[in-house]
Amino acid sequence: MTFPQMKIQIFITAIILAIAAVIGWQIDGRYAAARAEEGQLVGEAQQLGVAGNGDPSARTKKVERGDREAEAKQLAVEYATQAKEWHAATVMDEAAKQRYDAIQRRVSALDQSQLGIFTMDVLATMNHGEKRQAKHALSLLERLARKDPTGALAYFTKHSSVLRLVDDSEYFVAGALGSWAKEDPLSALKWIRKNAAEYPEALSLGSLAVVRGAAEKDPRMALSLIAGLELDFSNAHNAMNAIVIAAKTDEEMSVTLAAIREFREANRNNKELTRAADGNLAYFAQELSKQSFEAANKWIENAKLNPRELNSLAQGLGNNFLDEPDRWIEWIGRAFPPGKGDGHIMNVIGNWTGQDYEAAGKWLASASEGRVKYAAIRGYAQTIFQHDPETAIQWIMTLPPGKDRDETLKTIHMNWSKDDPVGGEAFKQEHGIK
Asked: Is 341 helix (H, G, I), strand (E, B) or coil?
């Protein structure tokens, strides 16, 4: 072979290996060998005066890529060395903690390609007991999954027989799928379907993670995934919950509400899905409860909720601590027909009483007579009874004689302390409870 022919052959081989490196790192021993051979051939090509590309910027990029790879590999060596110290020590001294924190910061700063190289190099050098090694491997893969979920899942499936020795390894799968779904939910869903038999945990936790990841970008897409997964009520409810709580702003909540309405209509013959949709409207209250009453009420008015939706939202409001509970109680009284919102009023004042019973009692004393106040008295008395039964009974007796008073007294008796059966019986006889 002539000298020019040798130069050309080395150049072509170097380029092929460089292209292979750009396509992606491989998860086995051939990866390290390919890297070493690439470096050797490129070095020989440079000595012979052969350039892979006449463009100076291309050469610069290759140098930068090589520097980044070298940085990742060097950090892997340091990490593996330090890991032996961390595992041997029962308690890290201050200097060891500082070294640990410094390395962790450097690992966090790696880009996706570097993190892949770093992770595979560290995993290749680990030499602990099988279960301990699996636990360490999962912790590294969890970090990798945030930037390269497909690469992390590929390693997991290849070495699942060992990695699944770790308790709750399914949470790694779910986390990786959730990260993947933020960019490509359909591919993540395809992975679940393909691997559901091998990893049954992926069908529940993984499905929820995929829906949650998709919800951050497109609630309509996330809801369509739920229908496609054919989940039971419990899993459908949890998946839909992830979609609702992902909406943080007024605009996001409006978009999500519109998507749920469309979803419910499209699946109106599926009782499991419609029940899950109705129930999850309550979780809009989590964000609304953080707003002022005026801001939250404005969103509700613009949403034009139907009675079913309004009932679910009011249920959610009663389960959250509200900054202006008195105004919400009055709002419920206006929003519902007489008597229909009583349970929601009782929930709101019950939470309020638990948080600040004095303020709740002060408002109750000044409230206008009527259905709203009577419902609030019932909720207040049932909440305060455990701590101040005398005050609770005084409030109950301000209720007009009839069903509301009788049912409240009966509830108090049912919740009477089991440690005081004599007192409970006396209370029953005094108030004629049957």
From this structure: coil
What beta strand segments (E) does 141-213 contain?
none
The predicted structure's pLDDT at residue 16: 34
Q: Hunting for tokens 């005084």 — which residue is that?
A: 394
How many Cβ atoms from other residues are within 10 Å of residue 38's Cβ?
19
pLDDT tens digits, one per residue of 195-232: 878 877 666 777 788 888 888 888 998 898 887 777 77
Long-range contacts of 78-83 (CB under 8 A, 24+ apart): 78/103, 79/103, 79/107, 79/118, 79/122, 80/121, 80/122, 80/125, 80/126, 83/122, 83/126, 83/136
DSSP string spanning 78-93?
A: HHHHHHHHHHH-SS--
Mean pLDDT of the chain: 80
- The alpha carbon of residue 256 and the mean position of all alpha carbons in its chain are separated, in whole angstroms, by 17
Answer yes or no: are the C-beta atoms of 148 and 116 closer than 8 Å: yes
Burial class (CB in 10 A: 0-12, 13-18, 19+), 39: middle
Q: How far apart (Å, rounded) are the C-alpha atoms in residues 268 and 250?
A: 26
| H or E element, residue 94 | helix 94-108
Between CA 284 and CA 212 the distance in angstroms is 16
Q: Which two tokens stand for residue 97?
A: 């903690």
Q: What are the structure tokens assigned to 405, written together? A: 């008073």
Res 421: pLDDT: 81
Question: In the chain, which stretches have pLDDT less than 70?
Answer: 1-65, 86-90, 92, 126-130, 201-203
Reduce the secondary structure of 110-132 to three states and give it as a string.
Answer: CCHHHHHHHHHHHHHHCCCCHHH
Do 236 and 273 form a contact (C-beta atoms < 8 A)? yes
Q: Which two tokens stand for residue 353?
A: 């009483």
- Token pair of 272 as six digits: 């499991």
Angstrom distance (rounded) from CA 194 to CA 196: 6
State both tokens at 355: 């948080």
Give the model confidence (pLDDT) of 69-98 as tens digits.
Answer: 888 788 778 777 777 776 666 676 788 788
Q: Which of 234, 225, 209 is nearest to 263 (CA)?
A: 225
Query: Which residues, 6 or more positions from 244, have their beta carbon under 8 angstroms from its beta carbon?
Result: 256, 260, 280, 281, 283, 284
